Amino acid sequence: MHVQEIAENVLMAIDTIRAHKIRSALTMLGVIGGTTTVIAISSFLTGMQEFILEQTQRFGPDLVFVSKYTNIGIRFSRPSQEERTRKNLTVEDAYAIAELPSVLGVSPTVISGSFAPAGSQPVVKYKGVEANRPLIFGVASNYDEVRNVYIKTGRFLTASEQQHRDQVAIIGAGIADTLYGGVDPLGHEMEVEGKIYRVIGVMEKAPGGLFGGDPVEDRQVIVPFDTLKRDHPEIEDITLSVRAKPDSFGKMTDDLTELLRRRRGVPSNKENDFGISTPGAIYESISKVAAVASLIVFPLSAAGLLVGGIGVMNIMLVSVTERTKEIGVRRAIGARKADIIWQFLTEAITLTAVGGIIGIAFGWLISLGLKRLAPTLPSIIPAWAVILGFLVSCTVGLVFGLWPAVKAARLDPIEALRYE
After folding, report:
1. Whole-model pTM above 0.85?
2. Quick one: which of 145, 147, 193, 133 has its CA closest to 169?
3. How many CB atoms sit inside 10 A of residue 61's CB?
4. Where are the domains of the chain?
5. Helix or strand run (H / E) with residue 156
6. Cα–Cα dist 257/275, whole Å
């Protein structure tokens, strides 16, 4: 079949779509829905992967978090009763870990406040203005080296301030903006849970939260570990941030696991009663949930394409019946069976291809909407998803348009000419 003939068939197919706009639109709905789903889900998953990579690089590849809970960080369920009754980690555990030859540094952390919006929140204010959902982090003086704290102005805690339990604080960019506006917070005092603290540092503004909320870094008030423990002796849940020496991450993880099992008296035949996780693993938990959701959504997309294909077959069979006389005329003036087959196949493929293009456009719009909902989530439509969506939509037209096309080609020319 020549290119000119293909072009003529495509133009004829487009004219048919124009002549039956509503019927064609209804026929394309399944294809549009299926292609839109493929594009939107692919955009979300690709953006999630980019977000995970960015967050992992921000924290550093050699960092681990240690907690008494197996699943550290982002959780989608409450800790089990067994996890809640486990022995807490201690400062002595941190000292022991610091002695491991593969460890570069370790910082114990206690937190006052809740990550959840509905949880209890400490009061941090300046001249009557309160910070929005602040989190008080009590950390060691080497925390900035272990966790990569990005200081914009001022400095971090010193060993002397840690030792003397000084009431000094490094605040996140969000708290600085809320409490001080355009005024430089350095050297100013602020009220933290009823006590006066002096601001010695302000952190850089962090990338936004996953779904548009304020990132944790912007809501932090970092104070000396012993100062917060003095004011909140009831907080016993300690998390340890541990950074490995260069090229020692695997060894550090093994050494850390062995040390904690020994210190916590875990029998050799029992599972760990603590959790070790990397920043990447924490964000991977979100990605896994998204992947599971895609396993549910993609079959629905396939079902939409199937429904669309059945609709295409039905409409093409109707079209064959409506154009029986036209088919007879074409056969009478020399058109071959192959020409008739390609005419109707081209029409079916064009119909679903137009639906695929519309679906790609809708998927792109959903991707833009996702970008507005979660500004920090890179909403990227991969080229393979666009190509796959278009090819699948064309394939639907090819597969489901084949039988009507063959049926049209098998019509007896004489009977077709006499058809009314």
Report:
1. no
2. 193
3. 12
4. 3-55+285-417, 109-239
5. none
6. 9
Please give the chain's pLDDT, 420 residues, in tens.
Answer: 566 666 776 777 777 777 777 777 777 888 888 888 888 877 777 777 777 667 666 676 788 889 888 766 555 456 677 778 888 899 999 999 999 999 999 999 999 887 655 557 889 999 888 988 899 999 999 998 888 888 999 999 999 999 999 999 999 999 999 999 878 899 999 999 989 999 999 998 877 555 555 677 888 999 999 999 999 988 888 999 999 888 888 899 899 999 999 999 888 888 888 888 876 565 566 666 666 766 766 777 777 788 888 888 888 888 788 777 877 887 788 778 887 888 888 888 888 888 889 988 988 888 888 777 766 666 677 788 888 888 888 888 888 888 888 888 887 777 767 665
Radius of gyration of the chain (CA): 32
Report the C-alpha gap between 188 and 183 in whole angstroms: 10
98: CB partners within 8 A, 6+ apart: 105, 106
Query: What are the C-alpha distances in Å from 175 to residues 87, 158, 166, 199?
Result: 34, 22, 20, 11
The Cα-based distances of 87 to 78, 215, 277, 394 in angstroms read 18, 30, 18, 60
Torsion sign (Cα): 226, 231, 237, 243: negative
Which one-letter DSSP state was computed for residue 129? E
**Do residues 226 and 159 make contact, with C-beta atoms less than 8 angstroms apart?**
no
Measured between alpha carbons, how far is residue 396 from residues 41, 300, 343 in Å?
20, 15, 16
Tell me the pairing of strands 103-112 and 151-154: unpaired
375: which 2 tokens?
């500004």
Amino acid (one-letter) located at 281:
A
Residue with tokens 């909140």: 232
Cα–Cα distance measured from residue 308 to residue 195, given in angstroms and rounded to the nearest whole number: 66
* DSSP-based three-state secondary structure for 94: helix
Cα–Cα distance for residue pair 408/313, rounded to 1 Å: 12
Distance separating alpha carbons of residues 29 and 352, to the nearest angstrom: 9
